[in-house]
TrEMBL record:
Protein name (database record): Uncharacterized protein
Organism, as annotated: Mycena indigotica
Length: 176
């Protein structure tokens, strides 16, 4: 990628998922300092990217749009104290694909800290529900999709509430 230092957008789609991890993402973003839009689109096949990929993305100063499915895992969110960016991220849109998460409230706080300008979060959990038939395996997959869709919708609502609260505080401070 060293030959494309002025690259501003990249969209890659693969039916089988990406054979890349957080380290590969970090190395890639370091080579494209002007990248403002990154879309790594894959179906619901699992991912080697972890939630730490969001910390990596926050450190990339130009990134405004990110689409990436991560393995949300069952462990704690990445620590921010040692790895938080030294400047605020300008990321405004985040599409998390089929990322699984445990608890919406800590995720909303995590995203709010990493991406203060973030004003749109979306997922792909409900995209394929219409494709499921009435077979028991399909019903289980549809219920799973609805479960994670609900968690991400709650994250988006919590983020919106935080943004409104921050706006009200800034408005109060400007009138004092």
């Amino acid at each position: 990628m060293g030959r494309f230092p002025n690259l501003t957008a990249m969209i890659l789609s693969t039916p089988g998922g990406f054979d890349a991890d957080d380290n590969a993402l970090s190395g890639f973003l370091a080579q494209v300092p002007q990248l403002a839009r990154l879309c790594l689109v894959q179906p619901n096949v699992g991912s080697k990217f972890t939630l730490y990929a969001l910390v990596i993305a926050a450190q990339h100063s130009a990134l405004r749009y990110l689409e990436l499915t991560m393995d949300g895992g069952t462990g704690p969110l990445p620590a921010l104290a040692e790895s938080s960016p030294s400047f605020p991220s300008v990321l405004r849109e985040l599409y998390v694909g089929h990322t699984r998460i445990r608890d919406p409230a800590p995720m909303a706080n995590f995203l709010h800290t990493l991406f203060p300008a973030l004003d749109n979060i979306e997922h792909q959990w409900l995209d394929e529900i219409e494709e499921y038939n009435v077979a028991p395996d399909d019903i289980a997959a549809a219920l799973n999709a609805q479960f994670f869709a609900g968690r991400w919708d709650e994250v988006a609502q919590l983020m919106e509430d935080m943004w409104e609260e921050r706006s009200a505080e800034e408005s109060d401070q400007s009138t004092e």
